[in-house]
Amino acid sequence: MSTSAKLKIWTAISVVIGCVIGSGVFVKPGRVLIAAGDSNSALLAWLCGGLISLAGGLTLAEISSRIPKTGGIYVYLEELFGKVWGFMCGWVQALIYGPALMSALSLYFASLLLQFMAIQDTSLIKPIALLTLFTLASATAYSTACGAIIQNLTTFIKLIPIAILGIVGLVMGEAPIFNVTLPASDVPAAGMGVAILSTLWAYDGWVQVSNLAGELENPSKNLPRAIIFGLTGVIIAYILVNMSLFHVVPVEQITLLNEKTASVAAETLFGPFGGKALSLGILISIFGCLNGNILTLTRVPYAMAERKAFPFSSFFSVLHSKFKTPVNSIVLKTIIASIMILLLNPDRITDIAMFIMYLFYALAFAGIVIVRRKFGVPEKGNYKVPFYPVIPAIACFGSLYICYSMCTQQPLDAAISILVALSGVPVFYYLQKKNLK
């Protein structure tokens, strides 16, 4: 790529923000607040989640620049720790992480759509979630371009509700923001680790920024700048939105409303019509986020199958003869996501997804040590993670802390996630043996 065609710094920052901002800031305030126990701790959890993501992005940027191969975390773990670790990561992305994101977003969308339409029958949530999932999966299977059009139309719109809520709520709200403790409950607060884990759903997507290195002008300077400015902007936006919600809706109500909090705040601030308009923007944001995840995450089994690193590779590595899309891979992910919709609630789904991926993220962050030993310190002019080894340590130990917290607070979900990951080990060796024949 010629220098003139490379990305400018402001474009890179907008890409970072666009990759990260989705649905989480609208649907997680209640969950974070319940886990944290008070408003101050909840805001701190949002800050800590952002700082862990920022440290992770800066660390992974150097790893990606030293291992210039496509495939993200899957490839980095394979290169640094061996093929079995890369396979387990891809296995988890295919069976847990991808379907979990798709199912949770479908459920959140359905819940808010019913609220938007003033329908009280909550039994309709799962049917609407399934219908939404099937519709977008079918559009993606029919044409990648169709999914891309939906994505382009929804990307800009999702920034509008965040800007309006974050500013107007602080000006017009009356409820206290700080030092508000939740009423005593029979169920104690889960703790800061679980609260931070919940925020990571909102920050998820930062891992994609590591793929910008080859596209940037002067990447050694502009990549860390894009990550720092982009994620800092997201952190500020998320904290402002949460402060605004606390200022408009009493925290006791937020814990009951959860994903409906932003819509209720919008109606409180702008009345029925203005509230409906802003709620529609939130719905479009979540719809676009779901579409983007279906568009990208359904490709994982296909990509693994192309490398003969997935069961029934000959089946999942085939593109549809007419549509030229990985239909079989899309169908697999959609079926798993549908089962999750029927059996689990969205908050539990997202906790499981974030927990298992952050185990692999922590391993990848630790891999920076191997990268430095193998390739040495990057030469002047090439990107290197700032303040090494402090930033990688924050990313690694921050990830391990929240995973440890989930193991202690939600051991069943953690155990299920780990067992699914470990189930990939015999599958890996079976495929290795089969491919050698």
Output mean pLDDT: 85
Please state the CA-atom Rg, rounded to the nearest Å: 21 Å
| CATH fold call | Amino acid/polyamine transporter I
- Content of β-strand: under 5%
CATH classification class: Mainly Alpha
Number of separate domains:
1
End-to-end Cα distance: 41 Å
Q: Catalogue the unreliable spans.
A: none
SSE string, helices as H and strands as E: HHHHHHHHHHHHHHHHHHHH
Describe the biggest sheet? none
Supply the helix-strand structural class. mainly alpha
The fourth-level CATH homologous superfamily is Amino acid/polyamine transporter I
What's the total helix number? 20
Rough outline = globular
Summary?
With 437 residues, this protein is mainly alpha-helical.
Q: Can you describe what's shown?
A:
It is built from 20 helices and no strands. It is mostly helical and 437 residues long. Helix 18 crosses helix 19. The longest helix has 37 residues, at 261-297. The model has no long low-confidence stretch (mean pLDDT 85).
